[in-house]
Design a protein that fits this description.
This protein is α/β, with parallel strands linked by helices. An eight-stranded parallel beta sheet has the order 4-5-6-7-8-9-10-11. It has a three-stranded antiparallel beta sheet with strand order 1-2-3. Strands 12-15 form a two-stranded antiparallel sheet. The mean pLDDT is 96. The protein has eleven helices and 15 strands. The longest helix is centred in the first third of the chain and has 18 residues. The two termini are 32 Å apart.
């Protein structure tokens, strides 16, 4: 019997406080639920993953907790963590509607395999760590002065790209306050689908005046024609997040946007994310790696796909007050993948 075969699996629910109230157009949160997943081989090597479910996609802490025993049981039944095709198929069959739970398990398994090979995870795809883009950090919705202060703090900490959440009755004043506080920052705006098509079209002029570099999900997810109209009129690239959940959604929105937002928690793991990125490229689109509010266990794994994308928004762990995990260095938005010796680089504290 090989010492690379699985000997144990486990998961733990963790309730995480955010460092400040985080608000987007759909609401505010002060805490979030994640689940940490571990898979251990017979040599005692441990792979670490994490789930960060989003209610928008009909998942929560309870649904993940209910799905994980069966998902880990499916992995145990395969036994060999390198049997990725078999494992992914069984995970999809076991919990087709629990993408975050599947992502946590798949991250843990692939982290373990990379540790067994004593190589960083990005080598599984033959990627170059120095090609990873700088990640943005998020400024949530608040009054203009508070948003300006948050933007100023991120810039003083060395982060060059800010993602600004909008979707209020006073968006222009909020964004202007951020721009005045961070005049040299690269600004990306995310309305989380809150604007109507006409509102988004009207906003394009002042978004351009404030030198916005990227506009993410300006209209509701199911507003295909409106998304296409905004993209055709926009002077900046337009990205689809809620409108593009998995690789199978890419062909349907390829004529309506410039960029596809890929998140492990909405597509179901590293292999599905890799497929989604390549599908976007095959349709002539750029890709962004995004995240939920997550521990470093899952952020670290996503970072290893960053050399494939044009944009990164992997700041979820920075929003947590007491992250139970550590990951690759993220100084000033620069992902230090070259510093990872094996696996994803994530560890429990």
């Amino acid at each position: 019997m090989s010492d690379r075969e699985l000997s144990a699996t486990a998961f733990e629910r963790v309730e995480l406080a955010l460092d400040t109230t985080f608000t987007i157009s759909r609401g505010s949160t002060e805490r979030t639920t994640n689940h940490l997943v571990t898979v251990t081989d017979r040599a005692g090597r441990v792979g670490l993953g994490s789930a960060a479910p989003a209610p928008y996609y009909d998942e929560d802490g309870d649904s993940v907790e209910a799905a994980l025993p069966d998902l880990l049981g499916a992995v145990e039944s395969v036994g060999d963590p390198t049997a990725q095709q078999d494992i992914e198929r069984r995970l999809a069959e076991q919990a087709p509607d629990e993408a975050a739970a599947r992502a946590a398990v798949s991250i843990a398994v692939q982290d373990l395999v990379a540790r067994q090979r004593n190589e960083p995870l990005y080598r599984a795809w033959g990627l170059s760590p120095d090609r990873a883009p700088v990640t943005s950090v998020t400024v949530g919705i608040d009054d203009p002065a508070a948003m300006a202060e948050r933007a100023r703090a991120w810039r003083e900490a060395g982060y060059p790209a800010l993602k600004v959440k909008l979707g209020t009755d006073n968006d222009r004043a909020r964004l202007r306050a951020v721009r005045e506080a961070a005049p040299e920052a690269s600004l990306r705006v995310d309305a989380n689908g809150d604007w109507s098509t006409d509102e988004a079209l009207d906003a394009l002029s002042w978004l351009s005046d404030l030198d916005v570099a990227l506009l993410e999900q300006p209209v509701p997810a199911d507003t295909h024609a409106g998304l296409q109209r905004v993209t055709e009129a926009a002077p900046m690239p337009v990205a689809a997040d809620e409108s593009c959940v998995t690789a199978t959604d890419v062909p349907d929105i390829a004529d309506a946007v410039d960029v596809v937002v890929v998140k492990l928690m909405k597509c179901g793991g590293l292999r599905p994310a890799h497929r989604q990125i390549l599908t976007a490229h095959a349709h002539g689109l750029d890709a962004m790696l995004g995240c939920m509010v997550e521990t470093s266990a899952s952020i670290a794994a996503a970072a290893h796909l960053a050399p494939l994308v044009t944009y990164a928004d992997l700041d979820g762990a920075l929003l947590v007050a007491d992250d139970p995990c550590t990951g690759p260095s993220l100084v000033g938005g620069h992902l230090d993948l070259a510093g990872v010796e094996s696996g994803s680089g994530a560890r429990r504290r």
